[in-house]
Design goal:
Helix content: 25-40%
CATH architecture of the largest domain: 2-Layer Sandwich
CATH class of the largest domain: Alpha Beta
Structural class: alpha+beta
Oligomer: single chain
CATH topology of the largest domain: D-amino Acid Aminotransferase, Chain A, domain 1
Strand content: 25-35%
Number of domains: 3
Bound molecules: ligand MV4
Length: 444
């Protein structure tokens, strides 16, 4: 087992990893930018190393600074958390070269899953259901037109280097395809330095349902059931729950099996997520594979009673997984509490938290690095806390979430708490009747 893990991240996820390391008897090193010198990860880690100024490019994204911190502290592994360097091929490879275990995917796996057209080709070959579309990248506008006529409108153009909706265009009719093609290519080129575009049939009102997976170095793989992440705004998830209200035991088995196929197809070692789009007929299609721990891993932990960070560390250290699948016994919901003004187009609201009181009681979990007097820096994302509830049923989980939201006091900055309170009252949400389009019509 590792003796010392450096956490190449900040905020709640850095604290989350420190907590599990402590429980496993592993020493921790926090790295921090000058903006985070007073943060809880710095306080609770065994050691802390400043790696640069507030701007991420010079601190949390600086590979030389982080590797230097790992070497001077004699760390034998690096946990990258989510975001930042967690899915960076070069970082994974440099860790390997320095003899530091990267607690995440191998460089070639990151590369294969990061290029979406390559990932899709891999999944088709493995027998994982994918959305009908072009075979690989489109050659030119004429190829795009020909393919669109085969696939049938509406179609969607996607950047192969994409993610987060950048370089994505929905096209409803042939006369619009040329403009969409040009603007998708331009956007992809500017955002990723890669203008490769592929095409799919556009699925009109899908749900976003992802399967948590784990694989080990012995070729074992298992799934840990699903999370429904359909309620998003501008590709930012707002709330996640498990089980999905749209799930059936049959669909869970089928999606779970497909996710395991995906895991085995890339010899995946570690914990990861296979994202699917699910249409109204419960057809499901591979969308992406995430080779990192995700923000919403918490709800899976609550319904299957399993520490996913601990599992991630154990697999990285070469331990075997049991290979059996895990099914939810309870219902969990997570609300992301962001320092944003929901009354003002979710505008970021950084600043000092003047007063803080968090809810508690049975079935309530808070993952946060926030405290009274903490200043939320403007340099990083605006998530300040994850409020997670777990209960016997979905109805009880919603009631518990309402109660917990009412107890949550955060003053000094605007937060998304009022949004979540409104959402908990929404009839369609209560009926489990929602798709990725939900926020387009939600009246706040
Ligand atoms: C789609 C789609 C409909 N049809 N692909 C959005 C981000 C990127 N990872 C894939 N995305 C989508 N791909 C086909 N063929 C709709 C979306 C999409 C979406 C997916 C999941 C969650 C929220 C979304 C919001 C808008 C569009």
């Amino acid at each position: 087992m590792f003796k010392k893990i450096l956490i190449a991240n900040r905020g709640e996820i850095a604290l989350r990893v420190i907590r599990t390391c402590k429980e496993m008897g592993i020493k921790t090193v926090a790295v921090y930018s000058t903006a985070d010198k007073d943060s809880l990860p710095v306080r609770f880690a065994d050691e802390a190393v400043c790696i640069g100024p507030p701007v991420s490019a010079k601190s949390y994204l600086s590979i030389p600074n982080i590797i230097s911190a790992a070497e001077i502290t004699n760390s034998d592994a690096i946990h990258p958390g989510y975001g930042f360097l967690s899915e960076n091929e070069k970082f994974s490879s440099i860790c390997q070269k320095h003899g530091i275990k990267f607690i995440g995917a191998l460089p070639e796996q990151i590369a294969a899953m990061g290029d979406k057209a390559t990932a899709k080709a891999t999944m088709i070959a493995a027998g994982v259901p994918c959305i009908p579309g072009s075979e690989g990248l489109l050659k030119d506008i004429n190829d795009a037109k020909d393919q669109a006529n085969i696939v049938g409108y509406p179609i969607i153009l996607k950047a192969t280097a994409g993610g987060g909706g950048k370089g994505m265009r929905i096209v409803w009719k042939e006369e619009d395809i040329e403009n969409a093609w040009n603007s998708a290519r331009q956007e992809a080129s500017a955002a990723f330095g890669n203008d490769g575009i592929y095409m799919e049939k556009y699925i009109e009102e899908p749900r976003h349902i992802e399967i948590q997976i784990a694989g080990d170095s012995f070729g074992n793989a298992c799934h840990l059931s699903e999370r429904d992440c359909s309620i998003q705004r501008r590709h930012q998830k707002l709330i996640e729950e498990t089980p999905s209200p749209f799930m059936t035991p049959e669909l869970r088995d089928k999606m779970g099996e497909a996710a395991i196929k995906a895991t085995k197809a890339v010899n995946y070692e570690g914990v990861g997520t296979v994202e699917f789009l699910v249409d109204k007929h419960r057809n499901f299609y591979f969308m992406e594979m995430n080779t990192r721990i995700q923000v919403e891993h918490t709800i899976t932990e609550e319904v299957i009673d399993y520490d996913l960070i601990k599992e991630q560390i154990k697999i990285a250290a070469g331990e075997k997984i049991s290979g059996k699948n895990y099914y939810p016994h309870l219902h969990a919901i997570q609300c992301r509490i962001n320092a944003e003004d929901p009354y003002n187009d979710f505008r970021p609201s950084p600043g000092k938290i003047t007063s803080y009181h968090s809810p508690g009681g049975h079935g309530v979990r808070i993952d946060t690095h926030a405290y009274a007097g903490y200043t939320i820096p403007s340099n990083y994302d605006s998530m300040i806390s994850k409020l997670i509830v777990v209960a016997q049923t979905r109805e009880e989980a919603i009631l518990k979430m309402k109660r917990a939201l009412d107890e949550y006091i955060i003053e000094g900055v605007k937060t998304t708490i009022p949004f979540h309170q409104k959402l908990m009252e929404n009839e369609d949400f209560n009926k489990g009747n929602f798709t990725t389009k939900f926020m387009e019509t939600f009246q706040f």
